[in-house]
Amino acid sequence: MTHALISTTGLAALMLTLTACTSDKAGFPTLLPTAQVLAPPTLPDHAGPVTSSSAQVDAQTTARADALRARADALRGPVIEPGSPALRPAAQ
To answer: Taking a C-beta distance cutoff of 8 angstroms, is the pair 67, 59 a contact?
Structure first.
């Protein structure tokens, strides 16, 4: 009985292995050649000006950082208004 169970289990494992090796490639990712994987990325046509000079990107980044700093400065201040009852000393 044990040999029959082992041979049935082995046969089931063999069948699962063989079904995984089918010619249906819909479930598998496509493999790329190593040269293509390690090649430098190709940029789209609209990225041309940025690749030649980074001054525009630097200017936009600096402007965005300045705008965020100004927004953060505007948010600094007391969380509770100065006349709020929460700031009054508790009655003893």
So the answer is: no
